[in-house]
Amino acid sequence: MKLAIKHPSGATAAPAPRSNAQKKAARKEYWKKKFLGSADKRGLIMSFVIYTLLITIAFIYLYPVLYMVSRSLMGKNDLLDSAAKWIPSQIDTKNYTDSILIMDYWNSLYKNLVLALVPTICQVLVCSFVGYGFARYKFPGKMLWMGILVLSFLLPTQTTSLPNYLLFRSLKLADGSVKPFLITAILGQGFKSSLCILIFYNFHNQVPKSLIEAAEIDGAGHIKAYFRIAIPLSTAAIVVVALFSFVWYWNETYLVREYLGREAISNRDIGLTTLMIELNKFQTSYDAVANVRGTSAGSTSVNRMNEALKMAATVLAILPMMVLYFLLQKQFVESVDRAGITGE
Amino acid sequence: MAKREKNPHDKHHLTKRTVMEWLYGYVFLAPWIVGVSVFFIYAMVRSLMFSFHTVKFDQGIVMTPLAHLFDNYAQVFTLEINLPVVLSEFAISLVLQLPIIISFALIIALLLNSKIRCRSAFRMIFFLPVIIATGPVMDMLTAQGVASIPMVSEGALASILSGLPEFLSEPITDLFSSLILILWNAGIQILIFLAGLQKVPTAMYEAAKIDGASGWETFWKITLPNVKSLILLNSIYTVVTLATGGNNAIIQMIYDATNNAQKGYSYGAAFSWIYTLIICVILVIVFLLFREKSDKNVKYEETRGAVLERRKQAK
Is the ipTM of this complex over 0.90? Predict the structure, then answer.
């Protein structure tokens, strides 16, 4: 090998004098390699196929978002004009100001933040604790509890949500406060808590047990070992669970309706609310606002209900999550790798 | 896992350490055990009780037993005239959507796992729906007709489909008209596949390349077997999300029935139990379809062993 490197002008180098036919063949070979690719490198055709596929699928994924944003900026005239399908002739922000008014946006946003953030923190702490317990210790009845954990993940929440709602109501908890969310999260029964526990279980199972045992032999108690060693080791899993829990709490509507109670859902002044619920009852809120505005003559009336208004409301409802996603996209996207959800 | 089996403590000798280990196991599980007992087990039992009684609310919950135990269940089948139709529609859409979601997720994961430029940008786009695709947002989008890709809904496809019988063409047109929503449901599955693909040791691919395997062969012989367990995981995840999502027609029916003053809670409870059983059946079917068929090898080994035995005896 060394010899060959020392004498590159030897047999390996292309001989200078060549016939035309040889040159042609070499050129043909070169282009063939370039298009079809070789064992180590992808050809141009394959690259073209891959990028076309990727860009097409990316467009399919982005299409609804682009549509939403472009529609929400359109005025009345643009909506009727079929020529202005994508780009509004004039940027109309009235849809946004109206939507902010109809949804009571800033107030709802604050309430939504409280409702999502507080239970998320509890959920992360408790699920980490329980998941560690499942992974670290061996005790009688473990398989039974594990089975119940998986079952509570698989079965639809609809069977349990009704008795739970009745329970909250009889305890006078379903009054639009954050209490039912807090209690369920602290007891490991928040939204998708079982999945969070499974993620932590999986993660702590991969951590060498000898690390923890060494600390315990050194005199650290069980609880201390958890706080001093297990928690610092599991930051990746904590980030994943925290981010996903926040998204789940933010986006859930079915259980939120049960936990907040019927009164609080229909009237946002009674208690907490979420932007998703506001979006869900957008039409009724609109009617209420439009009636008030209609009777007091002279005041600036809101736009007629149209799709641009609805799209503006939708954009506003997903905006906080979008901002969070763009800020923390790396954590979101790489989270599944790092938390080892796929196991083994 | 293997390490955990080698617990040095013998079951019959209760040392102080084992007892402490049991104790701390339960200390760590305590909050969850309380929660699961109240909000899952007790709720399940209550819901089951409701479904076998008539429930009334005057100063607390009054349950009166039914004439026949399964009256509520029978009533669901007689009152919900649409149920068989909705159920079969759901089953058909599941059968059509599941392979699409799984194969699309796998293809996208494979694409993202290959050497490409702007990988993080593409990843970001494909993961976006996980964050924003929720019930109310989806409702708004479907109402605007954004769920379908404009190029697909008209033109060549429609003419091809008109040749098919109606019970087949209808779900397929539905499928295409909501293709975006279906793809939007594949975010988590893509991530799970991607994580799995990145765990396949590169040495395996290198060895295959040296042996002269083509890309096609490498996919079938190395990539697919390595992500096979993830196909099961993803299928179960997909079924659970599709069956229990807020957009599901049956979930909507259950919610409406529960809030209906005439039908009442007991009726809703019976309805949700019927649906739970259906989901369990679907999950079992999915599990049986996609599980790793290791017992095939065992059978092969067994028969081989038997043949060898017989040969020995013959000698």
Answer: no
